[in-house]
Design goal:
alpha/beta; two-stranded antiparallel sheet
Length: about 160
Amino acid sequence: MTADTPALRELAAAGLDHRVVRYGRVDSVEEAAELRGVPVAAIVKTLVVRRGDGDFVLVLVPGDRVIDWPALRAHLGVSRLSLASAAEAREATGYERGAITPFGATQRWPVIADAAVAALDPASIGGGAHGVAVHLPGSVVVEHIGADVAAVTKPV
């Protein structure tokens, strides 16, 4: 299985020490964790959240957590947010839902990383294609993309 994605090219060009894991399509975060060889909590989901028409923010969420909507709204200082549709997410990032990553996205949106992400080692984040992940320290993810770190998730 080969995949040359904008995400992998960005990581290589930046000289970031990372490991690419190729594992095929999955149906759950539990299956992804098993095939990536990490606990569910080490999976980092990239969710595209709509703040307004054509205005998005990417939220990095550990695999064992979900967005805490009141906390995210308070952090952003807005009263309304929603998940982007699959079409909106693709338009905003260049990636299909299930393969979205902040690395190599077609447009740089603000990124909010849940506070737990920075402590992960490794963090297993999407590589820009289904069945492709990248393992690297969460602190490197946060620093490289300039993420705003905040407590914006809660346990599943």
